[in-house]
Amino acid sequence: MPENFAELVAIFINLILTAIPVLIALAFMVFLYGLVQFISKAGDEKSHGEGKNIMKLGLIGLFVMMSFFGIVEFFVRDFGATSFGIPLLPPER
Q1: How confident is the model at residue 93 (pLDDT cuts 50, 70, 90)?
Q2: Is the dihedral of CA 24, 29, 32, 37 positive or negative?
Q3: In terms of CB atoms within 10 Å, which end of the chain has fewer, N or C?
Q4: Is the model's pTM score more than 0.90?
Q5: For 18-53, what is each residue's pLDDT tens digit?
């Protein structure tokens, strides 16, 4: 159990950073499945089109996940984050 808000945020950010590579791998597997369908069913127009649509969905998923990963990394690195990804307030003067 987190004892304060900072620990809760750290847990949430760590979950996000752990889930993103898994989702990227899943989107890549969907793309590869569509590619196999596209190549193996080249003679059948309907199955050929289904493979093309699956590949499109896989590419969209890859784009969204990579963009989300980049945005999260940007905020973690460029806005004064600690190693746990928690933004720090400037010190009082």
Answers
A1: low
A2: negative
A3: C
A4: no
A5: 888 888 899 999 999 999 988 888 788 888 888 899
Q: CB neighbours of 41 closer than 8 A, spacing ≥ 6? A: 47, 48, 50, 51
* Beta-bridge partner residues of 81: 87
Residue 1 in any domain: the answer is no
Q: Residue 90 carries which DSSP code?
A: P
The reply to whether 67 falls in a domain is yes
Asked whether residue 7 is assigned to any structural domain, the reply reads: no
Three-class DSSP labels, 31-84: HHHHHHHHHHCCCCHHHHHHHHHHHHHHHHHHHHHHHHHHHHHHHHHHCCECCC
